[in-house]
Amino acid sequence: MKKDNYKIPLLKAQTWCENWIHLKDKEKDLAESDKYNPKEMRAFLVAKEDLLELFEQVEDAQYVRFYIGIHEETEKYDKVKKIPHLLMVNARGTEPKNAKDVVGEEGDGTTAVEGAPVNDFSHPCPQICDTDSPLYVP
């Protein structure tokens, strides 16, 4: 596994999370065919090995927090393609209500950090789906 490929710079992660949170506002004037289709983010698959690696990054973390993000890709497509991501960070706390994210910052936030990175181990569905699952809605 190429673990470093899954570490996301903080500024990129923040942008992706903002894209998700503000998606409806950004698309309000678009034609329906140009709006993000919820079927483009049905589920995420994460390998057990990757989750175990996540806990190894911060030994005293008791939790993992997941954030939804949207990467707006324009270089390979005629129009903006929105690619879903499930971002994962370690969190510390004695109870879920007081768990705090453990996210390291390095420099200006444009490079991924080693000790407490934002991780994107996810494989979104569609692309990798179990269409036979009772949770899969066609």
Binned strand content:
25-35%
Number of contiguous helices: 3
Radius of gyration: 16 Å
- The count of strands amounts to 7
**SSE sequence, one letter per element:** EHHEHEEEEE
- SS-derived structural category: alpha+beta
Distance between the termini: 32 Å
Please state the overall shape, judged from the principal axes of the Cα atoms. Answer: globular
Average of pLDDT = 84
Strand order within the widest beta sheet = 3-4-5
- Helix fraction? 10-25%
Biggest sheet details: 3 strands, antiparallel
Quick recap:
The chain is α+β, with helices and mostly antiparallel strands and about 140 residues long. It is built from 3 helices and 7 strands, in the order E-H-H-E-H-E-E-E-E-E.
Task: Describe what this molecule looks like in 3D.
With 138 residues, the chain is an alpha+beta fold. It has a domain at 1-21 and 53-103 and 122-130. It has 3 helices and 7 strands; from the N terminus they run βααβαβββββ. A 3-stranded antiparallel beta sheet has the order 3-4-5. A two-stranded antiparallel sheet has the order 1-6. The longest helix has 12 residues, at 10-21. It is globular. It starts with 6 loop residues before the first strand and ends in a 13-residue tail after the last strand.
